[in-house]
Amino acid sequence: xxxxxxxxxxxxxxxxxxxxxxxxxxxxxxxxxxxxxxxxxxxxxxxxxxxxxxxxxxxxxxxxxxxxxxxxxxxxxxxxxxxxxxxxxxxxxxxxxxxxxxxxxxxxxxxxxxxxxxxxxxxxxxxxxxxxxxxxxxxxxxxxxxxxxxxxxxxxxxxxxxxxxxxxxxxxxxxxxxxxxxxxxxxxxxxxxxxxxxxxxxxxxxxxxxxxxxxxxxxxxxxxxxxxxxxxxxxxxxxxxxxxxxxxxxxxxxxxxxxxxxxxxxxxxxxxxxxxxxxxxxxxxxxxxxxxxxxxxxxxxxxxxxxxxxxxxxxxxxxxxxxxxxxxxxxxxxxxxxxxxxxxxxxxxxxxxxxxxxxxxxxxxxxxxxxxxxxxxxxxxxxxxxxxxxxxxxxxxxxxxxxxxxxxxxxxxxxxxxxxxxxxxxxxxxxxxxxxxx
Length: 438
Ligand SMILES: Cc1cc2nc3c(=O)[nH]c(=O)nc-3n(C[C@H](O)[C@H](O)[C@H](O)COP(=O)(O)O)c2cc1C
Ligand code: SF4
Known about the structure:
This protein has 438 residues and is α/β, with parallel strands linked by helices. The protein has helices at 31-36, 41-48, 53-63, 75-80, 104-112, 114-127, 141-156, 187-194, 223-235, 237-241, 274-281, 316-321, 340-354, 360-377, 385-395, 404-418, 420-428, 430-437, and strands at residues 90-95, 131-136, 161-164, 169-177, 218-222, 251-257, 264-269, 272-273, 291-295, 304-305, 313-314, 330-335. Strands 3-4-2-1-5 form a five-stranded mixed beta sheet. Helix 5 packs across helix 7 (141-156), helix 14 packs antiparallel against helix 15 and helix 14 (360-377) packs parallel to helix 16 (404-418). Flavin mononucleotide binds at residues 67-71, 73, 78, 94, 96-99, 182-183, 185-187, 220-222, 225, 402-404.
């Protein structure tokens, strides 16, 4: 069946199709269809066309590909950190996809998991790993099955095994199913979980590229990052750089949620205008409602006001300059009739639940942020509370094992600051709080 009715389906402007090329193609998940569209030609080119591991790393560096898991770290550079001497090394795909509003990695698996498998084998060759894992969130039943099926087909076709395509390169791949904790998406928490320990992050350095899974050099890459690799190898670095901006090369999957007319997962070149995306591609807000705010990159990204998105482009540098981030590309649209005090309380509920509890500023801070924002929602707030929230959030930043604490602090600082007038309304009386709640 074509992937036509997927809830994730966007409407791809045809010239931007790199990752979504198979959208609408019958039997898009099959190996045969993937091969008809150039699938595994990149692996053949690498292994049989005489490309060395360094050639692959240099090509990916030249393409400007940056990690799509959130931080945007240059992919080729990261692969280059793996020590060269032979020995056990691992490649892990981060398919935890726990960032609220994010469903792009699932869409890739739904279209064709072979994109990911091929990208993984090429990446494994580049870093010298003979074993790799796909770390998948436990709730993703379909995606687990699609990845397992694609791995089986890849083994049967000779793309995986002791002698890949008869070239002597050995690579084995497995799926590992996690139990659905947001913190297991953080790469060192993920590695702990894969090792059978509690999914808790570890201090860096040492970085996983030097000391990761079972103490060996390990690269953790997001699904979307690896799925882009075959296209880059087939078409070259310059072709990839034709999309996007100087520092944000290529296309990116943007998952939009909130009351827009055409929600879905859209592939767009980085640097695309955010307003055009919301109003033209996604059809604007349902019922002609006014836009109040946008969370541009998942729950961890500080909020932008409607005025701030006027000339905003969707790329790493423009979002960073505006004090927020591209993150996972999860664009959350907030309409005029949703209270930002409720948005804050909702986000703080999430962060309080998901803190792993190792660090005091994060464990205690998220609890206090939830309590204070909930008090305001319940009509028990008082002038000065929003400032206290921002103050507590400020003390949670830059002093914990991982950046989860900073992520929780981001919206807790930006929302009270940018929507101070809405907090004042809530302090006035319980009646106005109850009204906004309805
Ligand atoms: C709290 C937290 C949750 C994260 N969740 C994810 C996730 O679900 N998927 C993901 O790919 N990266 C996630 N990351 C980022 C990973 O730590 C890591 O940077 C990423 O997998 C690297 O892949 P990339 O270089 O391809 O982007 C998370 C980071 C933090 C701090
Ligand atoms: S910052 Fe929070 S989530 Fe990260 S290790 Fe510390 S307690 Fe755990």
